[in-house]
Specification:
With about 190 residues, the chain is of the alpha/beta class. The protein is about 35% helix and about 30% strand.
């Protein structure tokens, strides 16, 4: 009996030491906006300053799944090759540069665009889609409110493999940043 009690911890320890866990797999959204454009930046147009994109704390390297509005989880082996906020930052910069009448600047005198990434998820139910959601705030240099809105884009995932999730997430990212850039241009033009 004593031998069994001594063998049990050794078996548990062996399971931890010699486990055969799968290696993490890394993905990048398939996004046109991340590729950027070859066009030179606008030198004319209304200046806008984009602050660094922030993200909900759990949106980091590991890919997120969501089965309802209140249940989220993280995949153990599926990872983004960089934090999703970095993808959103680059895609937004590209979309803003490509929007006629806008130009990006670092000047503190320009209206400021603040963006928080709140969803970069694989939604499992009721329909399997990739979802990207951004909370956007645009303030004039005098701190007047020009735009406060949540932008969301969803795209159907065309298969069960993780690369299909990355492709659909890239499409959702392209759609949401294009919508944000158009709304920023509209808000600044109305001003």
């Amino acid at each position: 009996m004593r031998l069994c009690w001594l063998a049990l911890p050794l078996l548990l320890l062996a399971g931890c030491v010699f486990r055969d866990a799968a290696e993490p797999r890394y993905f990048q959204p398939d996004s046109r906006a991340l590729a950027g454009s070859d066009a030179p930046p606008e030198s004319a147009g209304t200046a806008v300053r984009l602050q660094s994109v922030s993200a909900t704390p759990f949106l980091r390297e590991r890919m997120v799944w969501r089965s309802s509005a209140v249940e989220y989880g993280l995949y153990e082996q599926r990872r983004w090759s960089e934090p999703p906020s970095g993808y959103v930052q680059r895609a937004l910069e590209s979309a803003l540069r490509d929007t006629p009448g806008l130009r990006l600047t670092d000047s503190f005198d320009a209206p400021t665009l603040r963006v928080e990434l709140i969803a970069f998820d694989e939604v499992l139910a009721p329909a399997r889609v990739a979802r990207v959601a951004l909370v956007v705030s645009l303030r004039g240099k005098d701190r007047t409110r020009l735009l406060d809105r949540t932008f969301t884009a969803e795209r159907a995932i065309g298969g069960d493999a993780p690369p299909a999730v990355a492709a659909a997430t890239g499409q959702a990212l392209d759609a949401v940043v294009a919508e944000v850039a158009a709304a920023v241009a509209s808000a600044l033009a109305a001003r």
